[in-house]
Amino acid sequence: MKLQMIRKTKDPGIGEKYDKKSHRIINQNGTFNVQRVGRQSRIKDIYLLMVTTSWTNFIFFTALYLIGINLIFACLYFFVGVHHIEGVDHTTGWKGFADAFFFSVQTFTTVGYGSMYPDSFGVKAISSFEALLGLLITALTTGLLFSRFSRPTARVVFSKNALITEYKNGKKAFMFRMVNERKENLLETNATVILSLQNKTSDGSYSRKYYNLDLQIDHIYFFPLTWTVVHEIDEDSPFFNLSHQELKDYDAEILIIITSYDEAFYEDLHIKHSYHIDDFVWDKKFKKAFYTNDHGEVILKVKDVHTIE
Amino acid sequence: MKLQMIRKTKDPGIGEKYDKKSHRIINQNGTFNVQRVGRQSRIKDIYLLMVTTSWTNFIFFTALYLIGINLIFACLYFFVGVHHIEGVDHTTGWKGFADAFFFSVQTFTTVGYGSMYPDSFGVKAISSFEALLGLLITALTTGLLFSRFSRPTARVVFSKNALITEYKNGKKAFMFRMVNERKENLLETNATVILSLQNKTSDGSYSRKYYNLDLQIDHIYFFPLTWTVVHEIDEDSPFFNLSHQELKDYDAEILIIITSYDEAFYEDLHIKHSYHIDDFVWDKKFKKAFYTNDHGEVILKVKDVHTIE
Amino acid sequence: MKLQMIRKTKDPGIGEKYDKKSHRIINQNGTFNVQRVGRQSRIKDIYLLMVTTSWTNFIFFTALYLIGINLIFACLYFFVGVHHIEGVDHTTGWKGFADAFFFSVQTFTTVGYGSMYPDSFGVKAISSFEALLGLLITALTTGLLFSRFSRPTARVVFSKNALITEYKNGKKAFMFRMVNERKENLLETNATVILSLQNKTSDGSYSRKYYNLDLQIDHIYFFPLTWTVVHEIDEDSPFFNLSHQELKDYDAEILIIITSYDEAFYEDLHIKHSYHIDDFVWDKKFKKAFYTNDHGEVILKVKDVHTIE
Amino acid sequence: MKLQMIRKTKDPGIGEKYDKKSHRIINQNGTFNVQRVGRQSRIKDIYLLMVTTSWTNFIFFTALYLIGINLIFACLYFFVGVHHIEGVDHTTGWKGFADAFFFSVQTFTTVGYGSMYPDSFGVKAISSFEALLGLLITALTTGLLFSRFSRPTARVVFSKNALITEYKNGKKAFMFRMVNERKENLLETNATVILSLQNKTSDGSYSRKYYNLDLQIDHIYFFPLTWTVVHEIDEDSPFFNLSHQELKDYDAEILIIITSYDEAFYEDLHIKHSYHIDDFVWDKKFKKAFYTNDHGEVILKVKDVHTIE
């Protein structure tokens, strides 16, 4: 078996033995192809969900719990008796419930016009509780909003395809390209690239092997333009002996880990990405994504990171 | 003495000489078996307590201080005279006190319906102070809530037992297993494992010796599944010459320090853990905690991290 | 070509081949001379803009959206009918609109005096929505303000000029100077300095070459005074063979990356800076920027970081 | 000159040439003995002042600006005419001003009872502005309070004295001791220790020389008890040839930099400290600060970190 001839590297943490053939390890959206079952949910999971979900979802959920809480209190006031709220126009029916709801919002938000106000011990007590709860829910929402905004999410875009192509002096190389979509810069960026191959073993299970790829440049100080990460395919490269078809048979996947200091959030970031054999393109080149204009300024066309020619 | 033959490593910071035999250094909940006496309490300790205590406690304490502050102001208004609050139903007795309390909440939360309002210089002054204080307490509660949520607490679960068992090629190994219970990934995870043995010295005191354990893999890039940390018991291993009984006599304890980058909170985390000799199991194996389903997806049963067979 | 004789270092991430001659890579304000086109705007870009813009702009934008939102609601109330707000002085004309606006502000800020209050289902509903929105906008503004303040922006000032001057033992050196303008200290400060030269190649394009400069001291533990970063021009230095005119022809630019731990914000910082050949001064010296007074205290004149003599 | 014989290390960033003899570099409170003059104040300096000042000062300043803002608005209302505020008891004199002040607080805090409410265009406009300003000031105060609490300030206490005393095998050593006063642990703690000596040069100026001290242990994994940092005085030590009197003449100062991961705040911390020759004690020993009780628990007496015997 050819694979035996290549010096494999240590398991990067994904495991070497599987009962069946498995899909790509890292999905195209950057998550792992792993489902966790049997784990316990905790309050912090809800927080993380609210912080990482889309803005549409976040606004929907926020509206939901704000309206939900006020509906619950409206029910409470309605149950205790809307006539205990002085100044309502209606005390029964859906109009009475609406007034109870509006009184609830005026209490929850602490707007408290006073055109409606509690007039019995019970309603005074409930509305006191609601006003205090309102403070806490506002505090919580403030925290959630701030967390969403201040979350240091990099916007590094990887080229759609990874290339195996002629490089320099007739040598071949494996390469992919990245760009920082954000205006704020990334500094001290590092790349680690690992090839994963899986093949059937004699006992019917599947074995994954891992090969760290040597890179022409694995650290850049600045990252204002595109960065083409290049692995030269020389005799020490695991790609050296493997044909296109063999890479397909071994279900080749490239695992990438990028670390960088993000000037926007003053944090060190780690980004993971993967290219599956189906994302590979042979014998094409990346089109240059930037040019210098007549004023000596460098213009970077962000979307051209994907363009090959 | 056998221990003399093993190359011990430097004190990891826990001390080498004790007057008496002491319990395990790191408790099962991850704290140290050390009580600090004579230290001064400071405001930040209260903050840290509120941030690290359970949610039940947090809600209890928050309710306590919110109600407490309002009770204090209710007393103030009651003492100055509830009849200075215009619009109250009662000015004396517990009903008057209740109205003073409700007026306090309406002021503190800034709901201020106006059905009750201050009608003398004194009450105007006190209520002005309370409203301003309300802002500060709300600010503080907002900060506490946000701190609790945004606290980057990893959820790495360690196997209940550490194993000493056959490993490869007939060699024995010491091993334990970890899993990340959270969906968000850990990257660039490192493990440091130290064996601590204590034995009585000739002068009656106890001496602790420390031995860094060489690991098969001490760094993984990704941590989507379980990680079994393995120390091979070869001639250089401190375990090599020690029998089960000797380890018991020396009160063996394994000290573990894990560092990792947490994708959920974008922070580097350090986790400590320990296995005491009583947590060791001999000649069993960890049951595989994941499998591949028919769609090529990897399914991880989080709770199986503990399962041995 | 002389440049061939000097051992260049790897591309620091800026690229080696340009179609035309380009300006300095890092502008004097620390940004890159790169314009990104075709990138998608996102909500987080607005956040980053609000957090990084000047205080004047921030106050202007904040006033703008606070007034804007209230104008929109004023229009809504005006459209639905100001006579549905009980207690207004005017229901039509610009005075009616002004009352609608004031009612909106009283609702949005949750001040809710109650002298004006909603008196129809429609206005009750709109004002409920506005009060809830007010909470969210306040939360958002709180987050923005906090982000602005807590942003760990170092205040390291670089000398206006970089010098090439006699240093020690008759040897020449390239040097520049820095000072930390802030009272809080920087610890463990590192400097990386790269020379960039661009020259026309045979095919009419421009090639950039990069040379890491060896520094006398590239790491300091403390940074309470000024730090003069010195590169001795010996035979291994790229400056050794290059005349003033040649440096000009090659459009020499010095790229600087400083990393440091900031005691003010408890964060690691990275600062970038550049000196263009036009910022170079020959055969001058930096004037000492600190002296010891009669009480043994060291006095640092921050602005003297620029002074040469 | 004896000092010539010792291999000095690089300037740690404090400078080597001074015009006069200067005091200790790092004061006993951990700040540098450097005064910055001529630097520009900025908004962030006020923030940092409010965040780092004592709680007493913070409460005082906060009260000051809350009352100050309300006094300014009270003046505005008084100037425009208190009779434009409906529901006041007094419109002139200090009682009218008091009512204007109370109205201001009710507006600023958004409590808005409505017993007093604006009744003219001017007062409506001013109070609208005040309510909006109130939101911003509350936001700001929330941020300040949160910053104060969440600031990762370590509570490492250094022994009052550094010792030069017999150590092991008859060898002498320089040592000092630290303890973590806080319950939350410090992990991966490093120590760097530098000796600074200043002496008069032939031209009348003072020269500072620096010597990195080799430590028995310069890194500990855990820090639950005390840590005695030990520098053995062998032939390579700068202390080896220097008598007590010479150390005094050279105004010896020990500069210390501690880095550690703080489990309380999940942050890497850097702490600096210094011992001046006057803090040195000869031929004493640190008294052990912890003992094991009968239940096998280790008891640490925090204040004993200073105790020598």
UniProtKB/TrEMBL annotation, chains A, B, C, D:
Predominant cellular place of this UniProt entry's protein: membrane
GO CC, alphabetical: monoatomic ion channel complex; plasma membrane
Keywords associated with the record: Ion channel, Ion transport, Membrane, Potassium, Potassium transport, Transmembrane, Transmembrane helix, Transport, Voltage-gated channel
Pfam short name (any one): IRK_C
GO biological process terms on file: potassium ion import across plasma membrane; regulation of monoatomic ion transmembrane transport
Residues that span the membrane, as ranges: 46-79, 125-146
The protein's name in its UniProt record: Inward rectifier potassium channel
